[in-house]
Amino acid sequence: MFGLFKRDPKKKLQQDYERKLQQAMEASRNGDMRANATLTEEAESLLAEIRKLEANESA
């Protein structure tokens, strides 16, 4: 019953991932390639966490 109000950690990670990709794209458009690389790396680490959660759910 109380599990109904729990937040889905995968959903939050997915939102953070999409936000980082958007920020990376904007940095690239502004010519800041260093920020683009940093944000892309952070997005990739979030994606790895999402995939890890998905693997744990299916197991």
Structure, described:
It is a single chain. The chain is mainly alpha-helical and 59 residues long. The protein has one domain. 80% of the residues lie in helices and 0% in strands. Helix 1 packs antiparallel against helix 2. The protein starts with 8 loop residues before the first helix and ends with a helix.
In short:
It is built from two helices and no strands.
Note the main attributes of this structure.
59 residues; mainly alpha
Order of helices and strands: HH
Question: Main β-sheet, in a few words?
Answer: none
Stretches where pLDDT is under 50 for at least 5 consecutive residues are none
Topology, number of strands? 0
Task: Give the averaged pLDDT, no decimals.
Answer: 91
Shape: elongated
Give me the number of helical elements. 2
Helix content: over 70%
Q: Total domains, how many?
A: 1
Structural class: mainly alpha
Query: How much strand?
Result: under 5%
Cα separation of the termini? 24 Å
Rg over C-alpha atoms, rounded to the nearest angstrom: 15 Å
Pfam family, one: DUF6435
Protein name: DUF6435 family protein
Reconstruct the topology from this structure.
Elements lengths: L8 H21 L3 H26 L1
Helix pairs in contact: 1-2
